[in-house]
Amino acid sequence: MKKSEIRFSIALDDNKVPEAISWSATDAGPDIHFAKAINIALWDREQAGTMKIDLWTKDMPVDEMKRFVVDNIGSMAENIVTATDDKEMANKMRALCKELSEYLDKQEQTQERL
User: Which Pfam families does UniProt cross-reference here (predicted)?
Assistant: First the structure.
């Protein structure tokens, strides 16, 4: 059986706030990659529930964090189709992404005028 590993490294400041996030994966080559945020969700076999890790660096801008969340919802819409073929649920999630993206676009336009 082939095994694959993903490793995350989090550099924390004195207050335990992430300053840097790096990751590497056996299937992504030898390079170390850097991120401003990570969102990991696991379905715990024993608890039959979701366990999550959400981390972001102090240099992650608020507008990028909001886009990151919308992108995650869109990704989950694709995942639900692949995993369950539930197109209705995926379409509802996509509609939410569209609504949230329009909301963020309006926010950005308002900030640009200031």
Answer: GldC-like
pLDDT of residue 15: 95
Residues with Cβ within 8 Å of 21's Cβ and at least 6 positions away in sequence, in order, are 8, 9, 10, 11, 34, 35, 36, 37, 38, 55, 56, 57
Q: Are 65 and 104 in contact (CB under 8 A)?
A: no
What average pLDDT does range 86-98 have in this prediction? 98
> What is the reported pTM?
0.85
SS3 6: strand
The owner of tokens 């989090």 is 10
The DSSP secondary structure of 20-70, one letter per residue, reads EEEEEEGGG-S--EEESEEEEEEEETTTTEEEEEEEE-TT--HHHHHHHHH
